Please model this.
Amino acid sequence: MGWIAAHWTELVGFGTGLVCVALAARRNVWNYPIGLANNVAFFVLFLGAGLYASAGLQVVYGALAVHGWFRWVTRVEKDREYIARTPRRHVPALVAAFVVLAAAIAWVLLTYTDSTVAGWDASTTAASLVAQYLLNRKRIENWWVWMGVDVVFAVLAAASGLWITASLYVIFFVLCVCGYRSWLAVEAAARRDVQVPANA
Model:
């Protein structure tokens, strides 16, 4: 029964994850409620697999999903054609946030759990939080961070025996590439609209 439950949980995570990333690539706000369902599925799955930081990440993702959902409905991000670049002055703070989060999570895992992949688990967790924040603000660089996370997580999931999830993250990587290219196209179109007068 445990194997069947894990199997179905992984399949639910697979399906909702694909839909969530595909909707995000299309700048569709429905990626957030679908993402919340994905968080629940992966929380159960990762907890059972001993990926404690990744399980905890799903709880934080839920809070970030609410934040992103709010911004995409009420703030400047609600415009589907709106895409922004991360200001260079913000990069050091984002890198520092990643380092601090990764170090703190790794310490917790090594001190209080039996995790055998604490460093990788903590790093993907910290990077994912940074990527989700960038996505919430519709910063195009979110796709680069997600692509890095997907590569590492595919290997991590495979090493944990979660082959369906490993395959999912390979597909995530492809979707992220497509999402990045789509957002670049929207950004380029917006720039052309600004450069060409409306009455031209």
About this structure: The two ends are 67 Å apart (CA to CA). The first helix runs from residue 2 to 25.
